[in-house]
Backbone:
């Protein structure tokens, strides 16, 4: 009996619906075709519902005929240091395997896709809750013998197939999988479903790992934002600032010209100057403060109102982008429905101050009842011209109620930044960052304004308290504001009272009723 | 159930000597047919659903053999079926998920095991213990002990499992006692092989019916029979079983050269044990062990002399028994005491008291045992060191990673009809403040997870409404209960609805009418839209509710979040007393997609006009606030890096997985979200009219849109 023969063990980590089950079936079929004793197990059910799941395969790379009748005993669960090949369809799932301690630096090869399917926990965060994928990539190389990481989703899309076939090819490409290529490809053929595409995926995956050619980088690394062009006329002013500020200022100027006009962009630079020229106390990173101020000022000055939304939704490149995103061929007709729910605020945002103020004072208390859901068919001439009409109100924007409101709040914020510059330490920087809390539409925007007022009030206490304390308070308040989801405001949103009628007990015990 | 199991059914027809390839639970199904069962029943639940799915598709095969198959209404119903074996020499088998199903079945099981059986009665139990389990962690073993039913726990390879089924029937008949066979989840789903036998037509069947009914007063649970049955159980059946297990060598003994120690292991854990022993150099790839092993394929009843013989002459044994209480270990201790053996028993202590025995746990347990018992022919130190190196991998990894990777629990599928209902429930909570929600068992239990966090209690399958009766009268505002249509028919109708109507509860019930028991693998229920050809749809939830006197019933399409929100608000505020029921009507998306995907593919192939819907988000309009995600959590509604040069937070985005269920649009209005969402309906193979309209519109719109402009 060959005691030194070890079973070869494979752990497939996947998300429900990614074809991990099919992949393990392919492996079983291939091993069976080569007359290797094989066993696979899984914990489905969960797999059906998008959760993290895994499939575990063990086979003995020895023909049954050579085993003189004895059958190997395979484990049903992966075990630390027992796994030869880890195959993950997504980066965090590879991370999950690492975290479970299944990989061993002397034994385990990891093949995984670097793309991300974000977990709910990462998505629900109002700001940026993404886990840093680079960590997993770094740790993988420490805790495994060989590592092959690349964006398999991209390749799968190019090949018009599912990620599992690319992964299968990649597993074979590593050279550690003791199965013949014929057996693997026959297994795919036998499965009978979209064979051609799967085989192409297999080939592509194989090339990615077998050939030494550089593999697509981690999908998690955020691409550097495209630097936006500002007209040359602004260069002289912008170049007057330290180099690190140029990119952000150009972007800001471009955004505001696009939003309103060149004059508005001038105002923007003017406002930045009022901050930048203030002498800063020692220990204050002036560049950083100006940079963040410039960033959030540009965003705030281009606050989203009906005019802006209509503008963005009625552009030539937007029409094309939609087609690209939903995969519609140019020849294919497409209905596009916009979901707009203009309410009191939206209406007021395009009305002159006096009129809007009147409406606000009269209807604010039942604003929640006034918003009407509109399904706007922007692919029809009528619907699209509605957008164009709203878009054309742009010149009137500076006269609107909302505009005045925002500019007022902006100058309060800028004033606070300037004052804080005189305070040694991080306060000015924190106040600048606080500009980020004002964003969004309707209720979200109002909440942002409330939160910023709170922050500015805290910063104003600088007289009484010491800098460090105030700074940390401001910081804490900003983080709270940014992590705060919708704060349920019970019943106030509904007019009607929560009426609980008397509940009668069965007749015989009516006398003893409780409420 | 839109899936077809034709392939699996074929495997069930294999004959003598042919090699069976497939899943463990399918092997069990084949073994049942080889054992000549007359009837099979059961209630779906992971991991045994597959048995029911496959037999459901095996009409012809079953008809040929004359076997009666029933998709029981509940585990209680399935267990009661076994009553057929009490009076008649006919074999029957039922199946369900344990321990939850066994709880439901207990009444029938107690009666069954008290009366005893003539024909073999077999209960196939799918154990869902440990990793990824969706149920309470209890042991089936306790049920076996309280009712004196025998419990098989075969080694998890198909040959052993199939053999256990066949021997199990013999054991059942030899001892006039129902027999349970437990299979852990991975054993049910293990893919392996075994040599098949011919299927056996049952002695009595739908083809060869029983000539006459039999009456025996002693088989009725009434005095004096009840006591007589109890005596018979102890005096006759138990010893008979013990003898049968011993004489037929149902438990296996494997030798090893370290004879001063030994390992007693439950059959189901054998492979895990050997796997770890292989890693520690204590066994080879074929299970040849250095330490003697006694494998208990029958974990109840135990055979005292078998155990004492194995332990005699050993300084110490390791008891490998998963879960708690550790019934077997305690029994072993007392057996050894009675036999006056001083063999030390290591069990819990070397192993954790609770939790699954994964590879890592067994490695630690073995190492602790070796370290304490120091077998003569073994380098204990080396083994312990090796184990330490392996088991410390986890802590090393956690350390290196720093922060743990984000958890990814199961959730609603893309386009699930239950998601919008929970979106509406979350908005209802925002309106009225925190509401007590009695959740239930089913996919909808996921509503308790992020992003919804709706659900205060879960008490059992179909018991959501019943569990609200205690708290309902003590709350200042109405409580909401949730019930799936599966749970409704399983027992929620009586324990929940009827009870609430009779006791005049003033509360709100939401029934998730998605047409199947989706959480168990979308099996058919009495009100399923697509019934098998054999049955026609006769049962309707709304009619049933009216029938038991529910006055206030509203049926709302699941995806209409706005309407749902209004219906719930009405139910919360109406002055109508009594139970208010909102039926959320929307077919399980999994099943729907299984049906329509191929249809659409065919239509496209035939060049017919098809409209496909998808949602999208304008990333330049999205401000990265993600409030849309916090009321959806749809896998296809995700985030991506912000294209803006100024913004830093990721923007929301809809990926290719979108099935266009419409929730995003509904939420955008019902919750007054941002205007970033759009719905795109693409017309494939357009008619000439479509094309004309398209040409005209795009020309004019293109002109109105003007030249592309840069966006920062």
Residues:
């Amino acid at each position: 009996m060959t005691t030194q023969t070890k079973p070869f063990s494979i752990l497939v980590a996947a998300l429900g619906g990614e074809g991990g089950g099919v992949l393990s079936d392919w492996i079983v079929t291939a091993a069976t075709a080569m007359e290797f004793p094989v066993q696979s197990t899984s914990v489905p059910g969960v797999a059906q519902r998008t959760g993290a799941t895994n499939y575990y395969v063990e086979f003995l790379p020895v023909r049954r005929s050579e085993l003189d009748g004895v059958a190997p005993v395979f484990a049903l669960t992966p075990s630390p240091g027992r796994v030869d090949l880890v195959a993950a369809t997504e980066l965090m799932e590879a991370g999950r395997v690492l975290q479970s301690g299944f990989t061993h630096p002397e034994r385990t090869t990891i093949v995984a896709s670097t793309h991300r399917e974000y977990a709910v926990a990462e998505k629900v965060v109002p700001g940026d809750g993404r886990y840093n994928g680079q960590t997993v990539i770094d740790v993988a190389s420490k805790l495994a013998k060989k590592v092959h990481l690349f964006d398999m989703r991209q390749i799968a899309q190019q090949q018009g197939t599912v990620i599992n076939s690319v992964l299968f090819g990649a597993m074979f490409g590593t050279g550690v999988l003791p199965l013949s290529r014929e057996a693997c490809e026959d297994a795919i053929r036998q499965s009978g479903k979209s064979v051609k595409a799967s085989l192409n995926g297999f080939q592509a995956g194989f090339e990615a790992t077998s050939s030494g050619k550089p593999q697509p980088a981690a999908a998690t690394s955020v691409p550097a934002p495209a630097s936006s062009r500002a007209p040359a006329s602004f260069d002289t002013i912008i170049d007057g600032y330290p180099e690190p500020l140029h990119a952000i200022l150009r972007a800001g100027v471009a955004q505001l010209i696009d939003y309103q006009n060149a004059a508005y962009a001038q105002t923007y630079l003017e406002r930045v100057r009022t901050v930048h020229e203030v002498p800063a106390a020692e220990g204050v990173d002036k560049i950083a403060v100006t940079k963040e101020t410039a960033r959030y000022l540009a965003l705030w000055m281009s606050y989203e109102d009906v005019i802006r939304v209509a503008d963005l939704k009625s552009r030539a490149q937007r029409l094309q982008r939609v087609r690209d995103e939903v995969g519609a061929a140019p020849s294919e007709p497409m209905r596009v429905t916009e979901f707009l729910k203009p309410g009191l605020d939206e209406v007021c945002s395009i009305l002159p101050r006096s009129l809007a103020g009147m409406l606000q004072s009269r209807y604010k208390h039942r604003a929640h009842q006034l918003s009407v859901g509109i399904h706007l068919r922007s692919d029809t001439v009528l619907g699209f011209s509605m957008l164009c009409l709203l878009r054309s109100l742009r010149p009137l924007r500076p006269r609107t109620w909302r505009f005045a409101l925002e500019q007022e709040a902006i100058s309060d914020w800028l004033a606070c930044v300037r004052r804080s510059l005189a305070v040694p330490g991080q306060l000015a920087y924190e106040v600048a960052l606080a500009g980020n809390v004002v964003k969004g539409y309707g209720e979200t925007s109002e909440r942002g304004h409330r939160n910023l007022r709170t922050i500015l009030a805290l910063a104003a206490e600088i007289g009484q308290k010491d800098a460090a304390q105030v700074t940390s308070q401001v910081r804490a308040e900003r983080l709270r504001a940014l992590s705060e989801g919708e704060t349920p405001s019970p019943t106030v949103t509904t007019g009607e009272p929560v009426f609980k009628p008397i509940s009668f007990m069965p007749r015989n015990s009516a006398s003893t009723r409780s409420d | 159930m839109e899936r077809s199991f034709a392939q699996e059914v074929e495997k069930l027809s294999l004959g003598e000597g042919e090699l069976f390839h497939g899943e463990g639970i399918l092997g069990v199904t084949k073994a049942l047919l080889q054992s000549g069962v007359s009837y099979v029943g059961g209630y779906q639940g992971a991991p045994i659903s597959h048995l029911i799915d496959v037999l459901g598709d095996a009409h012809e095969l079953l008809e040929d053999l004359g076997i009666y198959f029933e998709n029981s209404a509940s585990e209680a119903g399935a267990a009661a079926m076994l009553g057929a074996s009490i009076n008649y020499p006919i074999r029957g088998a039922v199946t369900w998920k344990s321990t939850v199903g066994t709880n439901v079945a207990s009444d029938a099981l107690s009666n069954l095991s008290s009366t005893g059986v003539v024909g073999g009665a077999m209960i196939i139990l799918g154990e869902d213990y440990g990793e990824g389990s969706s149920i309470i962690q209890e042991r089936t073993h306790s049920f076996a002990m309280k009712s004196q039913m025998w419990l098989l726990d075969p080694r998890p390879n198909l040959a052993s499992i199939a053999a256990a089924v066949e021997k199990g029937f013999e054991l059942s008949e030899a001892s006039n006692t129902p027999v349970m066979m437990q299979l852990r989840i991975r054993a049910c789903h293990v893919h392996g092989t075994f040599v098949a036998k011919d299927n056996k037509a049952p002695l009595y069947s739908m083809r060869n019916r029983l000539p006459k009914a039999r009456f025996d007063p002693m088989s009725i649970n009434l005095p004096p029979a009840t006591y007589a049955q109890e005596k018979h159980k102890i005096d006759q059946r138990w010893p008979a079983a013990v003898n049968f297990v011993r004489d037929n060598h149902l438990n296996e003994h494997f030798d090893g050269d370290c004879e001063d120690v030994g390992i007693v292991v439950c059959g189901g854990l054998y492979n895990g044990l050997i796997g770890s022993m292989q890693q520690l150099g204590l066994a080879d790839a074929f299970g040849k062990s250095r330490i003697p092993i006694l494998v208990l394929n029958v974990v109840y009843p135990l055979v005292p002399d078998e155990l004492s013989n194995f332990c005699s002459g050993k300084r110490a044994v390791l008891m490998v028994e998963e879960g708690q209480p550790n019934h077997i270990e305690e029994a072993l201790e007392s057996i050894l005491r009675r036999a006056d053996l001083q063999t030390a028993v290591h069990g819990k202590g070397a192993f954790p008291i609770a939790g699954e025995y994964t590879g890592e746990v067994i490695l630690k347990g073995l190492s602790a045992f070796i370290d304490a018992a120091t077998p003569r022919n073994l380098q204990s130190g080396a083994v312990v060191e090796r184990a330490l190196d392996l088991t410390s991998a986890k802590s090393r990894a956690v350390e290196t990673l720093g922060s743990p990777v984000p958890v990814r629990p199961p959730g609603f599928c893309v386009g699930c009809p239950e998601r919008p209902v929970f979106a509406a429930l979350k908005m209802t909570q925002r309106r009225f403040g925190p509401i007590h929600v009695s959740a239930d068992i089913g996919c909808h239990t996921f509503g308790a997870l992020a992003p919804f966090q709706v659900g205060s209690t879960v008490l059992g399958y179909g018991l959501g409404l019943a569990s609200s009766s205690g708290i309902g009268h003590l709350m200042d505002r109405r409580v909401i209960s949730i019930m799936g249509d599966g749970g409704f028919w399983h027992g929620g109708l009586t324990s929940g609805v009827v009870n609430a109507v009779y006791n005049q509860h003033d509360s709100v019930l939401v029934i998730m009418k998605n047409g199947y028991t989706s959480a168990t693998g979308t099996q058919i229920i009495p009100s399923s839209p697509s019934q098998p050809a054999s049955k026609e749809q006769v049962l309707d939830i709304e009619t049933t509710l009216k029938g038991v006197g529910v006055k206030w019933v509203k049926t709302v399409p699941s995806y209409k979040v706005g309407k749902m929100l209004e219906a719930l608000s009405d139910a919360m505020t109406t002055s109508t007393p009594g139970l208010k029921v909102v039926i959320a009507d929307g077919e399980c998306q999994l099943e729907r997609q299984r049906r329509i995907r191929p249809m659409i593919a065919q239509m496209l192939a035939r060049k017919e006009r098809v409209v496909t819907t998808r949602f999208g988000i304008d990333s330049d309009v999205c401000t990265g606030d993600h409030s849309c995600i916090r009321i959806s959590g749809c896998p296809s509604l995700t985030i991506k890096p912000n294209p803006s040069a100024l913004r830093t937070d990721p923007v929301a985005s809809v990926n290719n997985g979108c099935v266009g269920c419409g929730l995003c649009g509904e939420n955008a209005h019902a919750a007054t979200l941002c205007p970033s969402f759009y719905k795109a309906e693409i017309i494939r193979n357009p008619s000439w009219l479509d094309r004309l309209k398209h040409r005209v519109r795009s020309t004019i719109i293109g002109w109105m849109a003007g030249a592309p402009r840069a966006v920062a």
Observations:
- Chain B has a mean pLDDT of 94.
- Chain B touches chain A through 153 residues (CB under 8 Å).
